[in-house]
Every structure is written in C-alpha cells, then in structure tokens.
C-alpha cells in the first residue's frame, strides 16, 4: 500500500513556488539598486496598494501590529479612551489598543459569522468610548453598514483590522476603506503575504496619513527634523518588492481560495457547521473555519488520517495572562467559538483533490461518532 500523503495546513514553500522566479528577480533588483530603506519600491507598493483597495493613501510599516498601534496613536484620542473590539479577535488587535494606552472593551461576535455583532455595540458603549476597532475575521467583511452608522451616530472613530481580509468587500467597497484607517498585515501566511514581516495602513484622511508617514520614521519626514517622538517601523525595500510581485497575483490567489471554499461547501456533509454566505459579502477565505462540538477529537481523527488543521484560536483573549488585569467579565460566545472552531486547509497550494480527501475524512468521523 502506498504511504499516506500528508496534507499540510499551509506549506509556504509550496504556496510561493509559482512566484519564485518573479520574487527572485525583484529581490535581485533591490540588492543591485543599493537602496534598501524607504526608496522607490516602498513608494511604488504604497501607490499600487492604495489604488488596489481604493484609498487615497497607503503607508507601509514593519508589520500588522504596528499598523494598528500607529493608527490608533495617530488618531490622538484622549489617553485612556475606551475602544470597542471583538472578544474573539486575534489578540494583536487588543494588544494594539493597550500599547496605544487605551482601554479595550470587548464586544461579542455573531456566533454564525465570527464577526463583531453590531447589535451589541450599544450594550458596551460608555461616555468614555471614543473608537471602534473591527476585525474582518477569516476574510469575511464585518457589517460595516451597521457598524459605520453606529460610529457616525455616536461620533466614534473607526479602525479596521484587515490582517485577514485583503481584497474582501462589502457590496462594492473593499475592507480598509470604511473607517478612518485600514490596517493590514502581510505576514507570510496572509492572502497577500510577504517573505517576512510587513504591514501597511490605508486611509483617505490627509492629516492621518501625514502623521503616520512621520511616526513610522522617528517622527520625521525630513532628515534630522523630528516633529513627533515616533518609532522605527518602516516597511523595507525588499519586502515592498516582494509585495509588488504578490499584489499582481492577489486576485488569482483569491479566485483559487474562493473555489476551494466552494468545493468545501459542496462536499462537506450537510450538517457540518460551515461559514455563512451572504450575497453582499465578498469573503476572501483567508481561513475556512467550521465548528464542531467534538472539535479536538475531530482534529485528532484528521491528523491520524494525514490531514493537518489549525485552531483560530485555542485560548480566547479574555483568558490570556497578558490581559488578566485589563479585561474582566464573561464572554460566552467567544468561549464557544474558541472551543468549537476548526480551520481546514485552504491555502494557495491546496488542491481540489486534497479538499475532497478532507471532506471524506470528516464524513468518516461523523459516521463513526454518529456526528
Ligand atoms: C487579526 C489580526 N490582527 C493583527 C495581526 C498582526 O499582524 P502581524 O503578525 O503582521 O503583526 C494578525 C496576524 O496574525 C491578525 O490575524
């Protein structure tokens, strides 16, 4: 019998194989240029990415966490403001609020979509609330129509964590352009992934863009003239060049991932709880998260069958030691999602044959356990 071929959750070498020649040529171009920090590649990527998402400005930074921290800082909110944030987001969104010296106030998500529930915003709003920071979880756009209307009604600033939502749209509008700032991570596994750490902020606000251009570079836009006490969080030339290559392929990457999602929708047993599809939401499926009561057993069963999966995320933010003196209260929906979520392989390198094998293995588990 032939040995069981392992299905990786993500293999970056395999995912990037189709881009290697272009990436190597771009890296070589940068090395030979002799200009490695804040040069033509960064400017060109910023212009190309701003155009792609439909924003006036893009400011490249070192990573997605810095994109969030610097955007929140640049808003210049009163110190210690309450900022509303989803209770099930990746902890980086919450850490950014803390590091910008504000108070994260958790809003429970919709159980079916993993996204911030607009109906719960008024329950957590206080006189100290100044902003909302949404995360478009797993590549699915949040209900920015309802959240935007709430922010407007209450005079709140709006930041979007788009680390998982490159190219995702609500209606015709791309995530990142609904609020004051859209914050992107280009961590290698993201739909638009660099060959290392990288991030960016997009905005239509000239003043905010100007502050961010300063803050990412020691508070300086002019050599040795410092307007703010900024930091060093520059996107470097090599990563910008890598991202220019990958950006040209982003729509193709999205087409492949959406087709894999379609295959899961068709082939998963009908009673498996899968992502919700709504006609006006263009989901880019950074992650394909199903839910199952016996998640850990199912995960183990898949592993035994040579299928690697992930959990996003095993511990909810309010149960992390890092936040124990900052967040209190009960978050049962976050608890439930963290207990039941299982992410199936859906990377650029994943094949339709692999999706079929995953679905067959899930079917076998459910027959064995009578669901
Ligand atoms: C939702 C979310 N926010 C923020 C980040 C942080 O991005 P980075 O790792 O580039 O700092 C991530 C990255 O995993 C993320 O998934």
From TrEMBL:
It comes from the Bacteria. Gene3D superfamilies: Aspartate Aminotransferase, domain 1, Type I PLP-dependent aspartate aminotransferase-like (Major domain). The keyword Signal does not apply. Keywords: Pyridoxal phosphate. InterPro entries: DegT/StrS_aminotransferase, PyrdxlP-dep_Trfase, PyrdxlP-dep_Trfase_major, PyrdxlP-dep_Trfase_small. Coiled coil: none annotated. Belongs to the DegT/DnrJ/EryC1 family. This is dTDP-4-amino-4,6-dideoxygalactose transaminase. It comes from Rhodoferax saidenbachensis.
